[in-house]
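Q: Is it fine to ask for two folds in a single conversation?
A: Yes, each is treated on its own. Send the first.
Q: Here.
A: Result:
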Amino acid sequence: MDDVEIYLNRLSAKGDIYAEIALKTNLDVTDADSLDAYLKNDGLNLNFKLYVSSESESNETIDEILAVFRKYDGNISCQVIKNEFLNLIDDDHHMLPQAKPRCLVHRDGDLHPAVHVWIVMKKDMGVYVLLQKRSDKKKIHPECYDVSAAGHVPQSEEFRIAAVRETEEELGLKISEHDLDFLGFHKSSYSCGEICDNEIRAVYLYRKPIDDDQLVLQESEVESVCWAEIDELLAGMDDASFVNCIDREELFMIKKSIY
């Protein structure tokens, strides 16, 4: 049975949503009636996977499409999958108009935008970075030391806004986008099991003092945090006992910015 993957984006207009269905079915599906006529075909041997974007906005077009599919429950194979949609990006750091479910972006290895926020402080002639220890619940790099805060840029969101949001979600630290120093873009690729992650990251530096005791860690993401002197960190990253997924190039970006 062939899979037909249809993206139902809550941020898209009616014409664009039906154009997506037409593209994936190779038929002239333009409204609920033409979709209904298509699904009446008893000879369909397809498994429909309907990926619905996770925004809270209502979308009457998507509601009517799901209602049509439900009419034929039992006659066709159909899964409704709610998932965050990510914009895709090109090598020149330009956001593309296409948005795609996050789970499929990671399956297919599509290039997509992400953010890294490094929280730093100067102390005793050294520069320290705040590291988070990733939760053991994470599918990728569980219990590894990593950047202070990080995450993907969902559709309709800008890099800097995503950086502010991720910092608050993961650490409970409310910051202003104006307090983030942009260090540059960094491309990263890695595979872990069935996940093929190809990112272009916007890397930011946050220099303002923070109170460690006031941090509220996101349990599903972060196990703990600690400070590490940047040169000692670089020297110790080859030690197998220090389990980490830290990107050396970003540490050099920090050093270049501070010194």
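Q: Second one now.
A: Result:
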Amino acid sequence: MNTNPVEISPAQIAETIQLLRDAGRQECILLWLGRREQGIQRIVDVYKPIQEADKDYFVIPRQGMAVLMERLRTQGLYVVSQVHTHPGRAFHSHADDKWAIVRHTGALSIVLPFFAESTTVEHFLQEAAVFQLDSRNRWNEVASENVPDQLRVTP
């Protein structure tokens, strides 16, 4: 799949990890909002939407979606990728496939294991399971050796 890579800063990765950890021992979803710039999808905001969550699920209610849409409209952004946690190993569940917020071809859905408790900025790409949406609306795991081609942590 030929898509524009996602670029995010180490500070934004650190913010992502902190927000996920702040959720405690329950799932949490974050949205990476950004803009396309010169063939790159550049993250400009790590956004935690209004959500309801427990140890093994999350949902963004209607109010949360309305607030998100207003933010996107007023700031000229779009949802580039979504990031969420699982209580155990990182994988894309049937519910993750069905309820993903980001739905454009090439979008990334990133799952961190064990509520991101041991995730660090330095090891984020190694711990994350990265999935990409294809043109048939299917989430496919990105092979670990190909993750840096799709997701780049840059200063």
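Q: Anything structural to flag on that second result?
A: Two points. The chain has a mean pLDDT of 93. The chain has one domain: 6-144.
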